[in-house]
Design brief:
With 250 residues, the first copy, chain A, is an alpha/beta fold. Chain A folds into two domains: 27-109, no CATH class; 118-248, Rossmann fold. Helix content of chain A is 42%, strand content 18%. The first copy, chain A, contains twelve helices and nine strands. Chain A has helices at 3-14, 20-29, 31-34, 44-47, 61-73, 85-94, 132-144, 160-164, 167-172, 186-193, 214-221, 236-247, and strands at 52-55, 78-81, 99-101, 106-109, 118-126, 147-152, 175-180, 198-202, 228-230. In chain A, strand 8, helix 11 (214-221) and strand 9 (228-230) form a beta-alpha-beta unit. In chain A, helix 7 packs parallel to helix 12 (236-247). At the A-B interface, helix 9, helix 10, strand 9 and helix 12 of A face helix 9, helix 10, strand 9 and helix 12 of B.
Chain lengths: 250, 250, 250, 250, 250, 250, 250, 250
């Protein structure tokens, strides 16, 4: 309920069209609507063309399918992430039109309403091939959000020429998501090469003193390239959502 | 050396105006210029209207003043951060036109060239009053970058009404920087209230198990509001630079 | 040996019925009884109407059943926690009257003596659906302790309206247990909304920089809402016991 | 604004006594009041007889005094914590009636309104003499909250008889706050001796592998006495607030 | 090569029976023997009546059996630790006289030479039943070293009377090994009760903030009972070896 | 109250000289005395010839002197540790007969009663010269306990010959305390050279990744020489007390 | 593109053989070649006689085989590391000439071109038998690099004579790789014995407070033997590459 | 005692010039000399032309000067590191010929014997200007070891052109020492650019999540450029010693 609607409600009360008790009920029973924030509901943006998101980790197969069915019943699309192979298969069996990305461990079903395009593209850059699952989660999320993306894979800093030769593509990107494990050095180099927003995603790739992603996480937080921001370890979904916050029309 | 200049050089070679060996020398001795990235130089964007940045920590008083003089000699402005009181005073004595922010520990001197405005505003939200130095560093940096900002101070989540009553201002912001120590919970709440990009800055405020900012850092990295990004502990400067990456025209 | 028994012993000494050396022996051999604490025995409160607790983790199937049988043989009830599915099944096979909670991984058998009610209710609030096993462990423990509870599930801070719309229930609770993983921000918000005791339970839900519950644990210890207390990661049982310490008549 | 007041407002609108725009203004400008929580404001309980709290750390001398004057101007009392000696002196110079506790580093000024008593007492137990500053912060806070407390100092577990000989006092307490550094073992023992709520406060006392309170913090979180809760390192204030949540009439 | 043998060698040189170059070769090729330490060889003490130790972790089944056979071929006994069930079975099949302890995961074969008794007893005290595997590893090692031990199980500090009632046994012990997980508080209490050497063994028992034994490890290192020493997490073998160093005749 | 006194009390009851109720009161009010542990009091052993210990850290100058005076008033001696220079001077001014060790930061005053000798010697071995303060704290404590010690300083493993050339002394020691910072490798080598008990003391000597003693602490806990035990970082006092537990006649 | 090629290109421009725009394109599209570093490509050294390296972890069976086939198709050899048994078998089935090392989990195929020898040998020293997989990975890598190596296994510092008796071999080595878990003390001792470069490799061998290799890692970084360098936990491959950097002719 | 001397001793025994018992005494009392390692003494290499090293940290002014005088008395030179300003001044006052480096905090006095040159040069590369003290410590150590060095300062990865333009110098270096704080990403880039040995030195430069050098330390240990080795945080001396091990003739 925005200010105009609230005013309308109050005027209806003033005109006797609505009983005060009923008006109170409207305001009190669903306080979220009565807040002066039209955007309080975090799902709102997603529902407006964007699909809903089902976080698959820690949910049973039945739960995932049930939630997906409930969403799809209204003609909405959904994006499900962190799915085991069996859950991916179950969703595809139920929704043959769904798009599966095995590497990303995601399933996406487009909604009935056409998706409004988000300006892009977002470059998703990875240091090594083992960072691909995280990069793919980001790209699938971007796809579900209606945002074009392009991938620059395996361009880690130990062989600089690989990155430098992709300058044209990097410069075209309106947001750059950099995915790296091990030393996590790539965002510092990319942040020095482009002026666009850089979102760094540490991955749990590496062993020993990588400590399941702690090493690249710290590297990225301490990036000597000013203005690089960081999301949680392996959180490709979060990086894509941050890119969408940046690119989304308002 | 941009593409045009490189082409000019090659044409001079083609016309015999420059010897191939000499041309090789020009290209080889300063490879940075020969890279196909016009934006390789991270200082470039700053120089184009933005001031240069002097990181004061670990520099002697003489070093800071000398660097500032060298920059100002060319008519450029500068922003100096992490300055002890004595360094702030020394810079002001040398540059009476400079603007000092004691809380932020910054000194800013505008350059001769008028600063191109960056669209805003950026909301800088703090959980408590002790987060103000970090917030002020962000705001001074934004000011130096030509970007308007507004401050919502002391609106921590333990008293939700303080934040909820500032909804109008929050919604106006094109980027929201959220500064919080202790439990670092504020970005999660703000991230749920606004659709704009949210940059979280953990601070070293707190004691005991806050472990000098580790606690709010982890909180923010694990934010349940999707798409929140994080910078280093107490890094108000970095958050502002990230906001500028987002807002800057390209 | 309680005070009455000790007095009786001393009187027997005074009457010459018992030799002083023998009395010394009685007192010395079993010091626990000679302590002036009627409450030294931590199991005592539980035995007085409350069931005994069998901590299932690290015990073999046989051990769990044997302990349960020994307890039940005296007509006492028991609560068994942290049970694998097979142990739950074994207990139910042996005690058909027992109540199983698969999510909580608990089995509860009521004792012969009627359970004295503990005033409540205790609200058990969770940030997400994956926090439910911990919440259910708390609720089953409360049930076994004779204390009513109510659940407010999936009301995390990224969508504040979910929590705010449950104000009526929150206010009714005499103790609030808040269960959250990831950013662990929920107890700070709840602690600001209610005046009742708030017990925060971090969960190991989350990945990457959640570090198996370390992140929400630190968040909760640093809660900016004054007077929030914390128990171990995933320790729903401990939170319920703490609530019982608060609510129990004395 | 509670439900009754909201209804009254809406009825006034219905009766034309209040203009709809004005009513919207009342509801929108201060959303905190429009929330269905009468207790949203965390300061409320304190203001009703309890003093306001000024957290002194990170505030300048002038700030502390100014805040104190603003509070006292309304006839309210205040409790200021974490004050340097000079700030304590400044407050006492300004408020001769204030009560200073140098060990606790607190200053308390009673308000004009008589303080409603909170049932107690709360036992504040310390393992060693160096834990006293934290214990005293807890006791001064309890005093400011109108709650009686009693101190059992230097009764660490390495000399059990010291604790066991104080059984009478321990049993009388309605809440027990246990303050300990180093091994932090005391709450486990106390938790086994009493049935009352036990709030454990780790302190930064100790050296080497105590890691500034990390060791006793972990000990307490893992207490083998069921139902012990924990607050932040050195947080005597928080423990007292938790005790007040428990004891406070509702 | 002991001193006598070295002297003999030098005398042979003096008598011309051995060439100086050859003598140099003897001394140089095997410097261990030429060291003035008769005790350089850490296995020496074990071989003199004590069995050799086979650390089973990370060894294949074949390797364990082969090593055991080599030792036994000389009539020596052995103690094998950290053995999987299959390795235990394989050793027993090969050495029917061997003694298996499934809880401790050890296999012990007595040597032909009678074991010289080590004065004792050593008390092995555990906080909970899940600490038994570690305690049993200590007791089996003590048995293999010819040292009597007695067990006080499940006497954790949350129920003090359980420990206090075993005072007689505790006082009889010449060394006390205290095994505890979770809060690790037991050694502090035991260290205050007895004057004998106390060796604390943290276990990985517990969950959440026990962090696989880190919590009790830190507790024990910070024990407020002076003179308590600590060994590695779950290292019952090491504790027994430390006890043997203390008790062994010299 | 020891056994004799308890027996005397009971006999007085038997003879009618004391009323049973009064006797109960005596036993109940001071349970420490009624415990069948003659050794419950941790200070007891020290008082029997050993001096009392004053832990200086965190105590004011006045407190230290006052405690020392109270002890000395009874003709007892004391050992004060962790004293600032000014506290050392104050104690010496007050007790001219006291022995000061500036490196160890200790002051020792012998009691009137002659100290019973404890069999030794204890070798105190240090890896480097900067470990001397910790070693000296251990040696002063041993001196105060009446136990002879000998020092092997600066014999770190990077120059093995330094240690190997001291074999004679090492072999004579009945207990070996090994003090080392940085890599903390010395106890592993010493533990392989001697059969006596080895107590390892990590020190905070070193920088960077020594993390204030964490590195040598972990090294020592993982010593590949079986039976090495460890005390807290910089805890020379604790190591000496552990040695005394081992050597003390019982 | 090396300097000669660049010069050739520029001369072609000078002679009109190549259009300036085309030349710009050549330089710009592949900047790596235009860099004045002939060695920018990290694979270059390997390709010149050395095999390419396939890091097997996180790659599917098909990916590993496909990559190997692509390399071998050109007559090049390869070294594959971190391979599961099934991947080792698959590679051997496909390349019967390949050399498998099950302990090291590597597969090596020699290329058609004869491998240029690298001066050696490199001594690979291990503290215990469980460090062998890491040592073998180092030795297989050295073998693939054409560098001779020799192994000194199970010479940990707890039995110094084992190491000292191998002095001759140690002195012959031009580089010494020291592999150790648990206390990680061996590199400090070796570093004191030899003047050659010492590369320390911590392993994840050990349990409890070894924290998966953290303990030996810290030990090695703090080695009191000057000039010891360290690589990642379990990184035998990296140590061998570092040795090759040292030994390789330039 | 080297092999020749030992042979001479044995021949003297053979010739009756020395009694076997006396020979045993010579061999046994000073085992270091009797070891078959000519290089056991870690100082040996230094003494042969290289100066001795005095580690200044934790030593008093008097100790430093006294040690320096003892060394210089024999005509040897010395290098003193980690010196406070006052210690630097005291050494220069005593040794006017000494060379002081205030940034490096070192004092170097050349010995009487001419220093044998070590082949070089060693490139010392720093990411930022605040890394200079560590870099200078490395360069002063190299100077004292007779090894030429060259410095590439402030060439961090956020502005790649700075590093790339120094390719000529980098390629000339026989060993590259890379000094970096904050993200510690520079060694990964340098390791990809050069084939020479790369020694990475993390510095404590940075704040917040740099955790006093932990972040760059982890980055470097996880470097994706194969064969990079790492020394302790801020350990410029150790890196130089490692370079000397590599370059030193043998």
């Amino acid at each position: 309920m925005n200010s105009d609607q609230a005013l309308e409600l109050l005027r209806a009360v003033a005109q006797g069209a609505i009983d005060p008790r009923e008006a109170l009920h409207v305001l009190a029973l669903d306080p979220a609507q009565s807040l002066p924030f039209a955007t309080v509901d975090r799902h709102r943006a997603l529902r407006q063309g964007f699909p809903e998101v089902i976080y698959g980790a820690g949910k049973t197969l039945d739960q995932v399918v049930a939630i997906a069915e409930r969403i799809a019943a209204d003609g909405n699309g959904f994006l499900a992430t962190r799915l085991e192979s069996v859950a991916q298969a179950a969703l595809q069996a139920r929704f043959p039109a769904a798009r599966i990305n095995e590497t990303a461990r995601t399933v996406f079903l487009a909604g009935d309403a056409p998706l409004s395009e988000v300006a892009g593209p977002v470059a998703v850059v990875t240091a090594g091939t083992s960072d691909l699952p995280v990069a793919d989660e980001a790209m699938e999320t971007l796809h579900a959000l209606g945002c074009a993306s392009l991938r620059l894979a395996d361009v880690g800093v130990a062989g600089l020429h690989r990155l430098l030769s992709r300058g044209e593509e990097l410069r075209r990107a309106r947001v750059v998501i950099v995915v790296a494990g091990m030393d996590g050095a790539l965002p510092s180099v990319v942040g020095g090469l482009v002026a666009a927003p850089v979102i760094a995603v540490p991955t749990s790739v590496g062993y020993g003193a990588a400590f399941s992603g702690l090493a690249p996480l710290l590297t990225m937080l301490n990036s000597c390239a000013a203005g690089v921001t960081v999301v949680n370890i392996d959180n490709g979904f979060g990086a894509a959502m941050a890119a969408a916050r940046i690119l989304r029309e308002r």
